[in-house]
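Onboarding guide, step 5: your first structure request.
Type a short instruction followed by the sequence, for example:

Predict the 3D structure of this protein.
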Amino acid sequence: MDPDDLRDITGLWLAARIDSGSSKEAAARAVTEGRLTTALRRPGVLAFVARVEGEAVGYAIATENPFGLSPGAELAIEQLWVGPDVRRHGVAKSLIGAVLTSAERAGCEIVVSNVPTTSRDANRFFARLGFTSTIVRRVVPTSTLRRKLAPETCETGNELMRRRRSLRSRAFAATRTL
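The system replies with structure tokens like these:
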């Protein structure tokens, strides 16, 4: 990847993170700490930039997926994003076409994409291209998982109830004063 592509992907990645609800500060921190650049330079990571009249308008990041569900090699589309102004103009299809070409060159029989369940448009787009649902990938923050795995004792259960009641009473009192 040349420096111009890296610069363009970085700018588009920041726009995508902000578009998905992240704060500008959190997204910028990931860039300044070098996490994005490090991730893009890992072996097996492929990055593609779509340009319209010389301007970068979208990107796709794919990885070779040796541990996929099928016995053959897979290429996984990790991220796909197109700027709002150029959506529905074939940019995403062009990016997926570039991923497909790379998959065929690498001898991959399957292209995989992780699509958020909450993104109805993205799910429809991938379904129209022939992608089918094979698994449900569930995610959880580590702090939540730690809390859920903690053994629930009578003491922790009572403490949780006390906190909930205290919060409810404060919320109720706050609404009464308004």
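Each response can be followed by summary notes, for example: The longest strand covers residues 55-65.
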